[in-house]
Specification:
Chain lengths: ~170, ~160
């Protein structure tokens, strides 16, 4: 592409034509193929922008705030009920206890429960009010605490996850 | 506070301009890539953009490139300086007048002082206004206008010789 008109700034035509020539040079510059970043860099940037749109704790913050409000509202209304408490020891074994009000619930955890062998921890999942068990996938904020007593390290991690209730409380 | 989608969108719109600005500082494409990556990564972490977001993005990349240049200056002193333009430009379409103009333009731009190069790249490639450029490089508007004028003047002179 050649947008530049050489004659536009010929001697005697006046300095007011200079900006037009400058603009033409700009256009020519913009149309001249520049050195491009490599394909691997493009891929690197795609990963950066798509997989880390924001850090996990920032992503979780508004959801955690909403969940906190919901929890507070639940306590105030006195309708707090079901709990599923899962204890993980990090070595693969774990214990579960389920409340009597929800005997037939099967929670499908859509995220791996695997965790570093060096850590053990506790997680509590609140299922909501009795009689209002949600069958649609529900978003929860989960907070895990990993403690390594030998190293004296404690890590807390909160993130949203989706749970689906595939059973209903028995009505027998 | 800007969201990550805004930063991502700004990057997509200005990817070439940002890379080219980093090239005006570093003259090394792999270092320029690192500078752009570092700057965008930091913006995604900090999410703090003061003033004009486009100017701030260019300023971030420019600063990252200058930091990287200072750190690598000794180690890479013997590296080959890479130009701003596609290397294939030197061999394409020898018979086309427009290619001749482009080659001349590319050589003339590569020969400009870096401070004029960056103003021209921000203006012509990034489509930034003069005020945005002044903000991005942290100099008064008059200085930007002067660098632009001198840079374009040098290019004009080179191009006029080709078309004579």
């Amino acid at each position: 592409m050649n947008d530049w008109t050489p004659g536009a700034n010929a001697p005697g035509e006046g300095r007011d034509l200079v900006p037009a020539v400058d603009a033409a040079i700009e256009r020519l510059l913009a149309a001249t193929p520049l050195r491009r970043p490599s394909a691997s860099f493009d891929a690197r940037m795609r990963v950066l922008l798509e997989q880390r749109p924001m850090s996990w704790w920032r992503r979780a913050a508004p959801l955690a705030a909403a969940a906190g409000f919901a929890l507070a509202a639940g306590f105030v209304a006195g309708s707090w009920s079901s709990h599923l408490r899962t204890w993980g020891n990090g070595g693969g074994g774990r214990e579960s206890s389920r409340p009597a009000s929800t005997p037939n619930l099967n929670l499908v955890h859509q995220e791996s429960l695997a965790r570093p062998a060096a850590f053990g921890g506790t997680q509590t999942i609140d299922l909501g009010d009795d009689g209002a068990v949600q069958t649609a996938p529900s978003l929860w904020i989960r907070t895990d605490r990993f403690v390594d007593p030998q190293r004296g390290v404690t890590i807390e991690r909160s993130y949203p996850e989706t749970w689906t209730v595939v059973g209903r409380p028995s009505t027998d | 506070m800007p969201g990550a989608p805004l930063i991502a969108e700004l990057y997509r719109q200005h990817a070439q301009g940002l890379f080219s600005v980093a090239m005006t500082v570093l003259h090394d494409s792999s270092l320029a890539e690192d500078a752009v990556h570092d700057a965008v990564s930091r913006l995604l972490d900090d999410r703090r953009i003061d003033g004009d977001p486009v100017a701030y993005l260019y300023a971030s990349v420019r600063n990252a490139a200058r930091d990287l240049g200072r750190r690598r200056s000794v180690r890479r002193a013997d590296s080959i300086s890479e130009g701003l333009f596609d290397p294939s430009l030197s061999t394409e379409g020898w018979n086309e007048p427009s290619s001749d103009l482009r080659r001349t333009l590319a050589e003339a731009v590569d020969a400009l002082p870096p401070e004029q190069q960056e103003v021209l790249v921000m203006r012509a490639v990034g489509r930034l206004g003069f005020e945005q450029i002044a903000t991005a490089i942290g100099v008064p508007l008059g200085t930007v206008a002067s660098r632009y004028s001198r840079g374009v003047g040098a290019l004009r002179q080179q191009l006029q010789e080709v078309v004579r």
